[in-house]
Design goal:
Low-confidence stretches: 1-25
Strand content: 25-35%
Structural class: alpha+beta
Mean pLDDT: 81
Strand order of the largest sheet: 1-2-3-4
Number of domains: 2
Length: about 110
């Protein structure tokens, strides 16, 4: 009986560790495309909450040492906005950082 209990405990620990490992792998971002999508969605939500009418989106993708980087541009009826997003390689999309900057247009 005692040997069975130790085996059952080890087996439960093994299953728990495997489940955690799978969950971590599923949440780890290994491609830049999900980062771009999250960057667009986050900035779109923010601008819409501010009451800004969106016209178009474009973006450029960059990889630096250890992170995915997106530089996005929103054209709106109220001016243009730059979006800068960054996520370290292999991290959860929940850890994305982003900045939203209103582009200044020089008047001539």
């Amino acid at each position: 009986m005692y040997k069975f209990s130790l085996f059952a405990l080890f087996f439960m620990f093994f299953l728990s560790s495997s489940a955690q490992s799978v969950a971590q792998e599923q949440s780890a971002v290994l491609s830049i495309k999900p980062v771009e999508m999250a960057c667009k969605e986050l900035s779109q939500e923010t601008l819409e909450e501010m009451g800004i009418s969106l016209l178009s989106w474009r973006s450029e993708r960059f990889n630096s040492d250890g992170s995915f980087n997106i530089e996005g541009y929103w054209r709106t009826k109220q001016g243009n906005y730059i979006v800068e997003c960054e996520l370290p390689f292999g991290q959860s999309i929940d850890l994305i950082s982003y900045k939203l900057i209103r582009e200044n247009v020089a008047e001539h």
